Amino acid sequence: MSDLAQEITSEIQSALDKDQLDLPSLPEVALKIREEAESEHVSALSLSKVVSEDPGLTAQLVRTANSPMFRATRSIDDLSQAISRLGVEYSANIVTGLAMQQMFQATSEMVDRKMRQVWKSSCDIAAWSSILCKRCTKLRPDQATLAGLTHRIGVLPILSWVEENDHLVRDSMTLDGVIESIHPTIGRMILQHWNFADEIVNVPENYQNINHQAADADYIDIVCAANLLKISGFADDVDVVENNHPDLPQDWHTSPAMNRLGLDVGMDESQRSALLEEVSEVQSALS
Questions:
Q1: Structural domain count of the chain
Q2: Which residue of 146, 190, 220, 243 sits 20 to 30 Å from the alpha carbon of 226, by its own alpha carbon?
Q3: Residue ranges for the chain with pLDDT beneath 50
Q4: In terms of domains, do 195 and 280 share one?
Q5: DSSP string over 163-217
Q6: How far is the C-alpha of 119 from the C-alpha of 125, rounded, in Å?
Q7: Are residues 83 and 200 in the same domain?
Q8: Would you say 156 and 163 are in contact if contact means Cβ atoms under 8 Å apart?
Q9: Range of the domain at 149
């Protein structure tokens, strides 16, 4: 990291330590959805009334319910039916994650571009996390999707700080250095602030640790593996053997996370194509 990036990181860390860094709040619609989902009287109908307040989220949830990933025999266009098909918990988690997209907006060109990149990357990781969870574990795909969507949520207050202090950050390389240094710690704080489950809260600080220890595969393993597959090129259908991405650890394909999931990147072409197709279906549903 450059001296400038280190200096800016120190300033943000100082603001964080003094409780002077504003942590983002969940969008109002997401708060309402989570509140309704946790109600003892929740139903597909009651949750649909809350979700329907946002036409964009309504359309995305119906599209998700109709996506090939659920292998439905008939198409539906009713929100309540979509929630019934997906389940209340699944619907609430997916819509909560999708509602976060409205948070990834900025006024300056450099920060706005970075926010859009982070959101796009988070959606890709979420799609991979959902399918890896479904294929390799008995954990909940909706939780895995939410973990993927929020694993870099700590970038948001960093970018907000940068936007207010744009005279200090003039190039994307400096910005990237600051983000990679501190976003995991801030991400954990945000998810705690939002009262997310510990299994999701622990992801931002640990998803880059390929030697993370656990008795069984967990959501950290899932997001870690999704990230490794993404940066290796496997997720983009390129030759992973020849990939030399600087952030790709040596022997990543035999890491504890990959082993606990039972993932073998040496699968044959038909298996790989089937996996990529499943992920693409989820990506389409989240876009």
A1: 2
A2: 190
A3: 241-242
A4: yes
A5: HHTTTT--SHHHHHHHHHHHHHHHHHHHHHHTT--HHHHTHHHHTT-TT---SS-
A6: 10
A7: no
A8: no
A9: 104-287
